[in-house]
Structure formats: C-alpha cells, structure tokens
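4.2 Preliminary Data

To establish feasibility before requesting continued support, the project team ran the inverse folding procedure on a target of 148 residues. The structure was first converted into the token representation described in Section 3, and no sequence information of any kind was made available to the design step. The complete token record follows.
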C-alpha cells in the first residue's frame, strides 16, 4: 500500500510539471486572449525584457487583479478545469478517494513550490541557484541586476 502512495506522489509531481508547462504555453499563445493578456503583464510590464529579470524584491504582477496567494486567475482557471477533469477520470477509473486526495495535495504542493517559491526566487538578485550552481552562466542569465 505504501508503494501506491509513493507512485501517486511521484505521478502527481510529474503531472504538475507537464500540465504547468502546457498551461504556460497556452498563456503565451494568445488563444484565450484575456488569459494571455493577464499573464503577459508579468513578462512585458513587470519584468520588462530591457529591465532585467532580477530585482531586490519580487515584483508581484497580480496587483489590482483577482488572485489567490499571488497566483492570477489566468493560472487558477485552467488549473480548476484540469482538476475537475482529473476527478472525473479518477472516478471513472475507480481510483480510491484517498489516492485522489494524495494526488491532488501532492500536485498542488509541488506546483506551489516549483511555480511559486522557485519561480519567485528566480526573479531575486540573491537567487541561490544562480550563485551556487552555475545556473547563470549555463542559461545565459546575468546574476547581477540590470541598471534601471
């Protein structure tokens, strides 16, 4: 039984990575204009290309817009639809309720960590990965802030 929980948690993390990637692609595609517009505020207004991607403090791009814990509706809407589809599929395939709960909790926690904590930290001048693991040079990211 413990192995089922391990596979469920690992599956949830992999699922979250894949779904997060495709939601991000959707947000850049302009296929659903209001979602793309809200997301592009982060890329083109808050962290402008010529401004640099790092600052002393994380610049939240959801000010004045509907959000939950800094996550805008452009992310929450698709996530809610995907979770509804997951519950429907899990029910149809007879997945035990406890494993459904483990899956959803693990997926949401992993998503919050990767797309929340790590993403926000990446925009900080003091980002530990850029300084300690050589990420800056490997991905052509200058760890020093661009003058404003």
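Position-by-position output of the design step:
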């Amino acid at each position: 039984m413990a192995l089922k929980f391990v596979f469920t948690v690992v599956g949830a993390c992999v699922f979250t990575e894949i779904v997060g990637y495709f939601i991000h692609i959707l947000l850049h595609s302009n296929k659903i204009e209001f979602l793309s517009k809200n997301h592009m505020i982060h890329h083109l207004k808050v962290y402008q290309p010529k401004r640099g991607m790092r600052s002393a403090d994380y610049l939240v791009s959801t000010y004045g817009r509907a959000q939950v814990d800094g996550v805008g509706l452009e992310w929450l809407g698709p996530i809610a639809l995907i979770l509804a589809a997951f519950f429907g599929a899990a029910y149809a395939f007879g997945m035990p309720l406890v494993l459904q709960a483990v899956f959803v909790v693990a997926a949401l926690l992993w998503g919050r960590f990767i797309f929340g904590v790590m993403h926000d930290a990446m925009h900080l001048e003091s980002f530990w990965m850029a300084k300690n693991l050589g990420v800056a040079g490997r991905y052509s990211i200058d760890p020093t802030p661009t003058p404003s």
